[in-house]
Amino acid sequence: MATFDDILEEVGTFGRYQKRIFALLCVLSLPFAGVFGFPPAHWCRDSAVVERRQVCGWSLADGRRLTVPQVNSSGALQPSSCEQYEVDWNSTTLSCDTQELDLSGATVTTCTDGWEYQYEGRKSFVTEFDLVCSDGWLVDLYQSTVNVGFLFGSFTFGYVADRFGRRLSLLISSLLNAISGIVLAVAPNYVSILVVRTIHGFGVKGGWMVAYVLLSEIVGVEHRRTIGVLFQMMFSGGVLILPLLAYFISDWRWLQVAITAPYFLFLSYYCFIPESPRWLLSQSKSSKALEIAEAMAKENKMKLLKNVETLTDDDGDSPMASYMDLVRTPKMRKHTLILMFNWFTSAVVYQGLVMRLGIAGGNVYVDFLLSALVEFPAALLILFSIERIGRRLPFASANIAAGASCFIAAFIPDSMFWFKTVVACIGRLGITMTFEMVVFVNTELYPTFVRNLGVAVCSTLCDIGGIAAPFLLYRLAVIWQELPLIIFGAIAFTAGGLVLLLPETRGVPLPETIDDIEFPDRRKQQQLCDILHVQNMEVGVFICFIFQLLQKTKHLQTEQSFAKGG
Question: Percentages helix, strand, coil for the chain, rounded to the nearest 5?
């Protein structure tokens, strides 16, 4: 029996048709990077010092030294962010020579006159609402709300895409992102911003996930890994573009408008992006799948000889996606649990290392650029390794490398700045590899009719990790700045070990049914039997008949055993 992979061999596994769709959907991945943000360096504001700074021509650093005391942070003295000297500057005779001023004996109090920020003249979400010090947890909540949207978006769009199709889901996502992005830019207060940001995350994650699955379903097995990695590299491109936009657009609300604008363009994709033929076949819509296959063949300058209308799903698997399908059988359950943990690990460690750049005291724009540049070698390493080695070993090794780097970096003193930075970059390289690999490995371990739902459900742990990451990072860093790195290292090591329990998927066709997962050898044996039937080899046909009978008996016994077990 022919499969859609056989059809792709005829119409072209990655011809002009697929390249055009790939280019369009890659652009959709760029604005996804706009979900990140950092609290800038801040310190107490003293109006009298600000006035004297203007009169004497002091630098921002001079004014900061006269306003806030030095405190011990992770073994080093640093200017306090939430305390200031309690000095009556109006009753004190001062010269403009800051070196003559000794405030070591002055009393210290909490900020009483607001805050000043590192990037003077720039307006961010944090500076507009002064979400620092005792209100700093509100920034953690702000960072987490987009991941709450991701969480519900994964479930919802996973179901909608498998129930109503990939194409309609992309349209709904783009419409939701366009509207919520503009509303977010004009939201008047903190509470409304949280609500709209959650809705925005709901649409952004859903659209990105559906686009990825659609791409994996219209290209041949030999191209899935490449298009998957390149599609995710576009997110890295977005991370690279974001600090450049932020540098030239000083108001965060106008920056939000700039990030949202492309989604209005994406609404037109409904006219240019086809439905997934695999999904159409899983829904018994062979005639529509045939139309798309013929369009592929025409644009790719190929000929379609097989009859798509004769293609059916094996063994009568239900075309209706169900959450229980992900855990009903042993191997599906194992895949789901391991992938869930790896999604969680990837999100916590990835987002944690990205955001840690923002609390390391460097230039946030340069830090963000460096973090993006690190991701490009990760993509090249993936393409090089999985072509020769496979998925499982690079996936596990990247997790272990990330974990080891986090452990080592935690114990390198701040005085060895460059060495610590290099080790942290290796960790960022490793976790970027795992984040990019978990996506396409996830798509390769689920059958077509439940593939979107499988990616959606597993990736919800990514969203839970994203919710937890800001609180883990910023709150634990108050106790010890390196404590989050210890936690990141432990979970990355665990994730690497679990990956070794997954099957290798290099060169394996996308599974069409649950039986393809539970009985992976059956498809190969069936293909051999089809060849024997065509060649009319009577002995081989008889052996295949006996083998198929035994397989069906074994399958029935397995189902009965599972039913008795609950």
Answer: 75, 5, 25
Specify which residues 42 forms β-bridges with: 117
pTM for this prediction: 0.70
**Which CATH number describes the domain made up of 322-515?**
1.20.1250.20
Residues 6+ apart with CB under 8 A from 293: 7, 11, 277, 304, 308
Residue 429 CB partners (closer than 8 Å, separation 6+)? 374, 375, 377, 378, 381, 401, 402
Half-sphere exposure of 71 (CA within 13 A, CB side): 14
DSSP letters spanning 277-333: HHHHHHTT-HHHHHHHHHHHHHHTT----S-GGG---GGG--SS--GGGGTSSHHHH
For residue 138, what are the contacts with CB-CB under 8 A and spacing of at least 6? 129, 131, 190
Q: What are phi and psi of 554, to 5 degrees?
A: -65, -40
Question: Tokens standing for 191?
Answer: 């509470």
Compute the distance between CA of residue 556 and CA of residue 232 in angstroms, rounded to an integer.
41
Mean pLDDT by 10 residues, the chain (566 residues): 76 90 87 64 81 78 78 66 77 61 75 79 81 80 82 81 89 93 91 91 86 87 80 79 81 89 91 89 83 89 70 47 79 90 87 62 63 76 82 90 87 75 82 84 82 78 78 69 82 92 80 78 60 54 57 52 47
Distance CA 129, CA 117 (A): 12
User: Residue 57: helix, strand or coil by DSSP?
Assistant: coil
Contact present, 320 and 282 (Cβ < 8 Å): no
Domain 1-40+132-306 has CATH 1.20.1260.10: no
Could you give the CA distance from residue 382 to residue 484 in angstroms, rounded to a whole number?
Answer: 27
Tokens standing for 349? 């460690």
Based on DSSP, count helices (H) and strands (E) in the chain, helices before strands: 21, 6
pLDDT digits (tens, 9 = 90+) for 534-543: 455 555 555 5
Beta carbons within 8 Å of 83's beta carbon, 6+ residues apart: 44, 68, 69, 71, 108, 109, 110, 111
Cβ-contact 377, 233 below 8 angstroms: no
Task: Retrieve residue 321's tokens.
Answer: 């996606």
Residue 498, strand partner residues: none
Cα three-residue angle 31-34-36, rounded to 5 degrees: 150
Count the neighbouring beta carbons within 10 Å of the beta carbon of residue 483.
Answer: 17
Half-sphere exposure of 134 (CA within 13 A, CB side): 5
Q: Measuring CA to CA, how many Å separate 201 from each of 147, 364, 463, 464?
A: 6, 23, 10, 13
